Fold:
Amino acid sequence: MLKLKIEGSRRLCGELEMQGAKNSVLPIMSACALIDSKILLKRCPKLSDVYAAAQILTSLGCRCKRTHEGMEIDASALESSAISDPLMRLMRSSVIFMGALIGRCGECSITYPGGCELGPRPIDIHLDALRQLGAQITERHGTLVCKAPKGLKGTLINLSFPSVGATENIMLAACTAQGETVISNAAREPEIVDLAEFLNGCGASIKGAGEARIAIKGVTSLHGCEYTIMPDRIAAATFMCAAASTGGEISLKGARARDIEAFINTLRQSGCKIYETENGIYLSANGRPKAVRPIRTQPFPGFPTDAQALAMAYMSIADGTTIFIEDIFENRFRHVDELARMGAQIKTEGRVAVVSGVKRLSGASVKAPDLRGGAALCIAGCAAEGETIISNVELIDRGYEEIENSLSLLGAAIKRI
Ligand code: EPZ
Structure:
């Protein structure tokens, strides 16, 4: 089992190039199943979730090839619309293939993407929306069989919650549906804008991405394109917390401050100096962080739930008490017990966590509970006194390109064992 070994208490300083965004490249790779010609995705990150998405595309008959420029995908030879259970279980966002496969083939068969570390991860909003577009979906023994014999028909869809995945699934299904689809209460995350820009680059007609109301005019066909994936805003937040937790100073090349304004505001409250530069974000910490106003996770543009664990690791050494309210997922405090093993003082009650900052964490053997919880343990390990061993590193590899190389570049004493 792979582990990371970190010798803490080193100031992290230096410059990092941001990887492509995991939560943008995954829906964009699903979108490729809609398009029967070649696509080149530049700044495609080397992540296990990306490899899983490539395995799913290959199982459908598509060709995926990583070249020095990025990921080349050719779905012209797509010959199946069924995704096997083992492949579906490789990652959560496999459900996004539904919209693309129904849009391309008029049908699809996938298994329920099982619950995962963050809670049950229901897909009721996805299914309800696809049914409103005319898909007939039957659920039998964990398999979802979808048919749209007469194709899909555009309509107005009001989302009960601005679900990122559901918004993406609808955009994919609506691209080649008859007529116009309007999504009201759509997710506004930057990854939604990236997906829309990619699809419009392939000939789709999508307006309003990034707003709460998105209009998609169905087109008869889509063509290939070359697209550069947006920079990963949560990876940027991760390295900013790592630098801030060690009193360091970093520049993140390619990072876009506008994608994480609420998060940047929180780090400024803690005492960091953060500037937007012409090619990224600059951060310098000054001494021990101060506790900040309560952090409540929200849909974009609010504080991102994916940065909650990262900020908690950082606030566990702050001067004062910080309150976290996790309003998006029902089980996203699994990193708390692991941080406590390193000396963090955290009390949780349902969706609320109260973090009483301590002067110093101490290294310990800990287990990554999920992707962002694992990244939070890397942050804590860099700040702690002594040695930290993190197991379940494969969970971290789902979303970070060789995290130990990035942290080493900033001066951390970290290695994979
Ligand atoms: C995307 O997940 C991201 N994943 C998540 O990042 C991110 O945390 C999340 O959006 C919120 O920003 C990818 O993009 C691959 P949601 P998604 O649908 O689409 C409930 C990471 O660490 N819900 O907006 O699954 C759901 O249970 C990952 O990179 C329903 O109830 O998020 C959750 O409580 C973690 N029914 C909330 O909505 C549904 O049909 C947010 O889910 C769909 C969602």
